């Protein structure tokens, strides 16, 4: 007997719709991996975030192709992509846009809104933690609401709209750590690690030749929007729903069956973590060519979903405790 679905049966998409979307998305993934060598897990998680309709935070040292990845995703998915280098002197108007006073042909003066670089479909916020809290909070509204407010007027952003931000984990001098409220707006925190030897060899040869690989368009923005709508209609079994609830609720200190959580964590993940996992496991299943997510998807995405939604307290950090080790213990609860 098949497992009962936790989603309404009338919302389940047809098999044909799923197969069409899977073929398009898998083709897009292959096109990105032709350009971004040795980072298959990173490509998968970035595509998962976009398919789920969310934003991603890429954390890694310089030189690991984070900028190239975002540009490749923009080209392959048919999105209008832009890049903003965040610096301490960057002002909100430099991102959102501003109003200018113009004089028309009739001699009358009026304000005209000049949109900033945030008016795109895929924004790369490079080294986002170098901007001031004021500028970071200006981007927060755009990420959460899909619009910006300038001079009391609301301006809707293009659809779809996604932010892929980068952060350098080793150079913190002169930076402004992202507040918890903004970190929570990122669906996934994606760790970008060094490639293995074989992948780095392929990269070395491919990128230093006369014609380095270039991304090729595979999807249109409308196709991505349809795939995102389909993700929300994929059925999710009760076992997966229970695994998500067990994982997230066990990560809250004071309520957890794990001693490490109750002892070492300052705070744990809220309900938005459950929502993020629910969307992300559906997107990962579609990306993998499956009709519904499994508990394995929950395990695979536990780290990217939880690591920026929970934090060790001061004593645990002083003793050298590891947040990743706590997440591993949480994942073992649903093994």
Automatic annotation (TrEMBL):
Sorted UniProt keywords: ATP-binding, Nucleotide-binding
Coiled coil: none
Residues making up the signal peptide according to the UniProt record: none
Domain of life: Bacteria
Keyword ATP-binding appears in the UniProt entry: yes
ChlI/MoxR AAA lid domain segment(s): 261-329
Keyword set includes Endoplasmic reticulum: no
CDD domains in UniProt: AAA
Domain ATPase AAA-3: 55-188
Gene3D superfamilies listed in its UniProt record: Magnesium chelatase subunit I, C-Terminal domain, P-loop containing nucleotide triphosphate hydrolases
Family: Belongs to the MoxR family.
PANTHER family for this protein: MAGNESIUM-CHELATASE SUBUNIT CHLD (PTHR42759:SF1), MOXR FAMILY PROTEIN (PTHR42759)
Name listed for the protein in its UniProt record: MoxR-like ATPase
